[in-house]
Amino acid sequence: MPTEQAAIHDVACAGFLRVEDPALLSGRGRFVGDIRLAGQAHAVFVRSPHAHARLLGLEMAQAQAQPGVLAVLGPADFVGLRQPRVNRLLADMNLPEAELVPPDRVLAVGAPVALVLAESRAQAQAAADLVWADYQDLAPALDHQQYDAPALYPGLPDNVALRSEFSVGRLPESPPAAEAQIALPRVAPAPMEPRAALLSWDGQGLHAWLSTQTPSRAREDLALALGLALEQVRVVAPDVGGAFGGKASVFPEDLMLAWAARRLCRPLLWQATRGEDLLSATHGRAARLQGRLWLDADGHLAALQADLRFALGHWLTYSAAAPLRNACRILPGPYRVPVQAVCGEGRLSNAAAVGIYRGAGRPEAALLMERLIDEAAAGAGLDPLALRLRNCWAPQQLPTDWPNGQRLDACDLPALLRRAAELFGYEERRADQARRRAAGELLGLGIALYVEPCGQGFESVRLTAHADGRYLLSTGATAQGQGRETSYALIAAQALGCAPADIRVLHGDTATCPVGIGALASRSTAIGGSAVLKAAQQLRAELAAGAARPHTVDLVHEVAHEAWAAGCVMLALAIDRETGQPRIEDLVWVDDAGQVVAPALVHGQLIGGLAQGLGQGLMERLVYDEQGQLLTGSLMDYALPRADDMPARLRLASLPTRSAANALGAKGVGEAGCIGAPAALLNAAHDALRPLGGRPQLDFPLTAERLWRALHQDNTQSKP
Ligand code: SMO
């Protein structure tokens, strides 16, 4: 991956090792699947082959009789287990209150219907193949069905579980300056480590090792599921190999395993296969976005109307409402728009649950707004960069409170646009584009300006100064590879005036760490890091005032306001006229992550997020057929980006403005790559095809076939 980032991005990455790295790089990491407990048995789930069916009978005796099999548990064995709770993020939520393993029906391909427990994984798998289920197939409710779909749950006749509505002012009667529609397919979070759980019951309580982003939340969910007191449940997230939002909730499998572990009094290990994750972990995106934008006579944005529809799948994860809520509250993003009407809806369907996925609604908001800005510019004969400069918030206007209750953080949006334009050589590139277009080339320039709100609520820290001069820091924040131990040690060391190596950071264990929220929403530095800073400052002051060691500070830091990161992406996209093959010729990205704690960690987040954002834009798509069967059940069918799919020319730059929302001045960066890059890419593709006329409907992923059809004005549906 040849890049120029080292020259421009102000980081000293070369040779930088995180505290976490020596163990991880030498095979001494400890993931859930590495843990061995005495008497540990293995779990394999039997899953529904139907998207929607009546379950008429289940024959488990033959499986039960196989060598090594400890138990085969069906729906009758899980009576009393309910679906896990859902965070009530929206006022208008209509939640299915249902049993976790329905006795008489299945609601999605891949939904667990039975659990086989055996001495070895191979024995469990062999027995699982001998569980016979009798189904009567029913019509499924598909993601794209808006009406007339069969209801999944009583009380939800139209399958609408979530609604959001906000408006300010009155939309104009005049025709809009621009309209946009975007269909975003389901994509797979696809962390390197699929889901994994090890559950152990000792007669008194439950001990769970989970590959999770949210140990404290999982502890509550497990306690609720089993009717236990919180003190009876310990959750440990050991090393976790990525999550991206896909491990922020407990899964039905986790609860079934906990239930079974208590019943069998044997530790039970489950490690999902890649196929099981594609089929039955959460999916991301799955939205249909529609919007209209009005300009006034001076080229100011006058009004925005947006209608956002999200697919939710057959059960609701804890954060099921987050993408819809985020997309609705972030609009109109970096721009001043006095009149707004934004509504959203989330609908259940007979497919895998859709959860949060890196960005969680932020990418959707950016995609719709940036498409509208580009279309409005094209329609009015304005330069899209100039239109953005004219309409984005000025730094002296920020922070500002929006009528929808959001407070946009301090940032310098015009500077981000100008710096990106300078690095990209925007003016010269427009001239070059005109020359190459005249020679018959299809070349598009795409811009996206975005904002990234970085989480609300609290995070916790317990910091102890020991007599030997060393410190122990434990936190409710956690990590799945972000390098939290490194960054928290840096923050604490600076505030305490010691070396980072003098600070030991513990996280991910509810027995040794205070209650926290976890690692998600780009929140861990802005909120968790602020908690660390506050605890370290307080500890230092108390030690200076004569406190004897060991001395502990315990605090919960609750934020009053959210930190918002921002950034600008510009890219040049060439499309081959013969084949439709897209190629990113150059990508420039200027990011404002606020005060940076560890440049190398930020750099890693930017590059990784960019790969995922471009993966969504160019390659990734989960496909269900009309019967609700998943056609992309392996990485042979589902295209994840590889290193050589990254742009050949890639330049990152930082232009930080301190956050006004916390003392650290930090914003988030974890999701940025999935927010700006896809929007810039989609704009570039439209710009490339603009000379051909017409109004092509371009949706992700922008494969060669899709682009070829668009440039041949062939709007027939491409095959799934
Ligand atoms: S999608 Mo993130 O882990 O909040």
Give a written overview of the molecule.
The chain has 720 residues and is an alpha+beta fold. It is 27% helix and 25% strand. The radius of gyration is 26 Å and the shape is globular. The chain starts with a helix and ends in a 9-residue tail after the last helix. Bound molecules: dioxosulfidomolybdenum(VI) ion. Dioxosulfidomolybdenum(VI) ion is lined by residues 213, 244-245, 248, 356-358, 360, 520-521.
List the helices and strands and how they pair.
Layout (H helix, E strand, L loop, with lengths): L4 H4 L12 H5 L15 E7 L5 E7 L1 H4 L4 E5 L18 E2 L11 E2 L5 E7 L2 H8 L3 E6 L22 E9 L9 E10 L8 E6 L4 E5 L4 H12 L6 E4 L15 H13 L3 E4 L2 H7 L3 E12 L5 E13 L8 H9 L8 E10 L13 H19 L3 H8 L8 E2 L5 E2 L4 H12 L1 H13 L3 E12 L4 E8 L5 E5 L8 H13 L6 E5 L16 H21 L6 E8 L5 E12 L6 E11 L6 H20 L31 E5 L17 H18 L14 H8 L9
Parallel strand pairs: 1-13, 11-12, 15-16, 21-22, 25-26
Antiparallel strand pairs: 1-6, 2-5, 2-7, 3-6, 4-8, 8-16, 9-14, 10-11, 10-13, 14-15, 17-18, 19-24, 20-21, 20-23, 24-25
Bound molecules: dioxosulfidomolybdenum(VI) ion.
